[in-house]
Amino acid sequence: MRSLSRLVLMVVVAFPMGSLAQTDLDSILADSSRPQADRQRDAGRAPAQVLEFLGIGPGDRVADLLAGGGYYTRILVPLVGDGGRVYAGN
């Protein structure tokens, strides 16, 4: 039983679930409907790395506090999808 637990742990570490959501995030960031100004900010803000670090994904409930112009809000809404919620405010 102990060896089975170790095997499961090794699989989880080797294939983290966050990488599955990364494809969706890449398509969200590449979406042509995003404002050009937002796409220009991507290099400096590194949204893929930030959201991967935070572990935000489909179905999550997220608060975007001090949302400013909504840069992250516009990324988070499609990322969490219909099953999630994004609360944004200034």
Q: Work out the radius of gyration.
A: 16 Å
Mean pLDDT: 82
How many distinct helices? 5
Q: Got a strand count?
A: 2
Strand content: 5-15%
Question: Which shape, going by the Cα principal axes?
Answer: globular
In this structure, how is the largest beta sheet organized? 2 strands, parallel
> What is the string of SSEs from the N terminus onward?
HHHHEHE
Describe what you observe in this structure.
The structure is a single chain. This protein has 90 residues and is mainly alpha-helical. It contains 5 helices and 2 strands; from the N terminus they run H-H-H-H-E-H-E. It has helices at residues 2-14, 18-30, 36-45, 47-54, 71-80; strands at 61-65, 85-89. Strands 1-2 form a two-stranded parallel sheet. The longest helix is centred in the first third of the chain and has 13 residues, at 2-14. The chain is globular, with a radius of gyration of 16 Å. The termini are far apart. 12% of the residues are buried.
